[in-house]
């Protein structure tokens, strides 16, 4: 009986291991000069390290990324995320040291600049996989000249809010924070990360960097059902006694 239960536990362990997350981090290095538009699918289906991103613990081939997925909210500007290289963004760049050209630390900053009071990033997971949104750096520059408040949120495909946080960035100096939603979605679901300014005093003086997200494999319910049946079979098997 003990051996049978151990076998069942090993099967379940295999499924759990299949769900171990894999991480991709976007650092915006080497993907364009100042004011260059971020490619609309930058970071999608990442399988290897390349310009502007690193795959640290595997890959995220089953997550499609869309910058300003609802860009019509951006004063009709579509994808308005862009790269900026000003040294005013140095504090945001250096909030998290990525350790490679993909993140452009030092004198050659590369960050994702917010030009409007509304920006978004879409994440679409393939069937059988789920998004895990870990963290990102977010801040303002000393040029902002006043505190700014932002409503950050994640919505699902039905526009329901599944995570939210309001942040206040103060001045007169740079203010940078690391926001960590640590959000895990449902299999095959699409989500949108939204940056909505409440009282942004000056557009173009806010930025995001080091966007970290994962994917996990979600076994089909039928798989667990089969394991349940197998488990009942193990438990119900007759036990034979050794002859005395």
TrEMBL record:
Signal peptide bounds: 1-23
UniProt keyword list: Signal
Source species, domain of life: Bacteria
Entry keyword Signal: yes
Domain Ice-binding protein C-terminal: 218-239
NCBIfam families given in the database record: PEP_CTERM
Listed name of the protein: Ice-binding protein C-terminal domain-containing protein
Organism annotation: Botrimarina colliarenosi
Lineage, top ranks: Bacteria, Pseudomonadati, Planctomycetota, Planctomycetia, Pirellulales
